[in-house]
Amino acid sequence: MEISTELTTTSVLLLGFVLGLHHAIEADHLAAVTAIVSEKKNIFTASLVGGLWGIGHTISLFVVALIVIFLKLQISESVESKLEGVVGIMLVALGLNAIYKLVKSDKTHAHTHSHGDVTHTHLHSHDEEETAESHHRLSPRSVLVGMVHGLAGSAALMLMIVPLIPSTVVALLYIVIFGVGSIAGMMTMSLLIGLPFHFTASRFRFLNSGIRVAAGLFSLILGATIIYEHFIAV
C-alpha cells in the first residue's frame, strides 16, 4: 500500500509538471509574452521574460490554492469570467504598448565626424530602448502579467485537480511542480519567440519592425476578443 501511494503521488506530481508545460503554450499566455519579448534583442533576456512570467503565474496559483484549501472558499463562474476579461484588457494594453514603443523607438540623427582634415556627416539611428534603458534590463512587468494570468487560470485548476488530491501537502506541492513546468515551458517558448526578433534586429530592421507589429496586433486582437466574450457578449 505504501508503494502504491508513492507511485500515485509521483504520478500526480509528474502530471502537474506536464500540464504546466502545456499550460505555457495557451494562446493568451503566448500573446502576452510575445508582446513583451518583441521589445528585446537579447535571446537570454527574452527567455528570462518567460521565466519571470512563470514565477508570477505560480505565485498567484499558490496563493489561491492556500485560500481554497484552508479557507474552503470557491471561485465562482462569474468571478472567473471577470478575471478572464481582465486578462483581455491586459493583452490590449500590452499590444498597444508594443506598437507604441516600435513607433517611438527609431530616432534618426545627423552626426558629424572629423578625421584629421576630413569632416563628414552621416545619418545614424538610435534605438530608444537602448538609449532610455538597456535592452538587457528586466522589469517586474512580466511577473505582474504572469500573476494576472495565474489568477484567471486558477479557477479551473482549483476545481478540476486540487480537490481530487487527498493530501494537503501533495496538493500544494502539485501547484509548485505545475509552476515549475509552466516556468520551463514559457522560458523555452520565450527563447524560441525571441529568435526572430534577435536575428532581424540589426540587419533586417524592416522585417524586424514587421514582426513587432504582428506581435502587438496578435496581443491586441486576442485581448479585444476576450473582452468581448467576457464583458460584452455575456
Describe this structure in words.
The termini are far apart. The radius of gyration is 22 Å and the shape is globular. Helix 1 (2-23) runs parallel beside helix 7 and helix 2 (27-37) packs antiparallel against helix 6 (141-160). It has a two-stranded antiparallel ribbon. The protein has one domain. Residues 128-135 have low confidence and may be disordered. Strand 1 and strand 2 (118-127) form a beta hairpin. The protein has 234 residues and is mainly alpha-helical. It has 8 helices and 2 strands.
Produce a short descriptive summary.
The protein is mainly alpha-helical and 234 residues long. 76% of the residues lie in helices and 9% in strands. It has a two-stranded antiparallel ribbon.
Could you give the topology of this structure?
Elements: H1 2-23, H2 27-37, H3 43-71, H4 77-105, E1 106-115, E2 118-127, H5 128-132, H6 141-160, H7 168-200, H8 205-232
Antiparallel strand pairs: 1-2
Core attributes:
globular, single chain, two-stranded antiparallel sheet, 234 residues
